[in-house]
Amino acid sequence: MNLTDSAKAFGIRQALKYLDKDFDRNALKVCDWLVAHDVGKGVTSEVKMVRRVLEDKDNNWYRLIKSLYTDIDDGQRMRLFENFIINGCMIGTPAGFASSAKYGCNVPWAILMDPTSGCNLHCAGCWAADYGNKLNLSLDELDSIIRQGMELGTRFFIYSGGEPLVRKKDIITLCERHPDAAFLSFTNGTLIDEAFADEMLRVKNFVPAISVEGFEEETDFRRGKGTYAAVVRAMNLLREKKLAFGISCCYTSKNWNVIGSEAYYDAMIDLGAKFMWLFTYMPVGRDAVPELMVTAEQRAHMYHFVREMRNKKPLFTMDFWNDGEYADGCIAGGRRYLHINANGDVEPCAFIHYSDSNIREKTLLEALQSPLFMAYRRGQPFNENMLRPCPLLDNQGRLAEMVDASGARSTDLQNPEDVHELCAKCTHAAEQWASASQALWEAEGGPEKWEKKKIILKERDEKYRARYARAKA
Are 346 and 357 in contact (CB under 8 A)? Predict the structure, then answer.
């Protein structure tokens, strides 16, 4: 961290302490200070949006933000705010753009990695359940990935699996080694106990996203009898300890109407969840169940429903397919994130099990510059309709083209899946969604918004390329 970054970090820490003294009285003042001192413009637009929310105390977003001061441990809240606002956005985001300009490749804001392929559950339609406890990234390998990412500007690290909490001790060790990074884990929640919760409270920079498929019937249908009860116990424990947590939901043709219901939102909020990450079912793996894929009508329901709930409920919700308009298309391939599996294979996405690089053979930067990742970079966005971001689910044949051109291989060690067969399973869904999403995109003024956004993105990239050229000279 240079002197400018150090001064910036110090100032924000003081602002956060000021906010802690009297949230209602000082919140607007802190927002104004952040905007005035955000030289890299890493958070200005977001802070301005937050300021508008804070002016209306009846707003659901105000209630969510205020709940972070009433429901979350003071020490954890401060550490997470520092790591997201200072390290992740105001320092990490500009550093990532600068690295991208310097090396001519995507640089991720977040890295998703699998400590292990092992899992204590066997969920229907989950590829990880078939691998068993066969593959693991060592503690040193995980640590190396984090260090390499931080050198490029990445400050946010996410664990998936398998069940990451099989490696509780190592996860806590990594939190200790990297107190200036934020860590999140997708977890089934069944391994969260009081001892681990106390460790979370001690390190302060780890947040779980607990996987639930709906209420008891839907969750236990896919994850096994008794899972929902275990999840509720974990949530109650985290809430009692004043620890931040969220939920991760995969909506399918069987549970979309439950996930997409007000009653479900209310139940999760009452249990203490502060955020919800939504995924749609992807037919990845030879044993996948294509019948679980949502129809275009069901996906459209989630599109409308999530946007409605964002104006009503104090729960921060992200839909990784339907929110392409906010992320400017596909976020994979290192553009916003990438995935490293438990065998060390560097994959563009958690749902794209093809790779031409392994972290045990290449550096993270070399993987980002590999043919597959550069194909992603050249192709993004894969569609001018931001509601069709995915090269697999939404744009028929695009994934196969990139895999074929790069020579990437299937990373499924047990049952390698031909990419053309995988794409074929998505053909009908892609065709149906193409028509449905175009109507939504045009109705929301998407084409006009995207033309304006392209100018902004081009100017940003040119700015960082110019900075690198001056530095090199």
Answer: yes
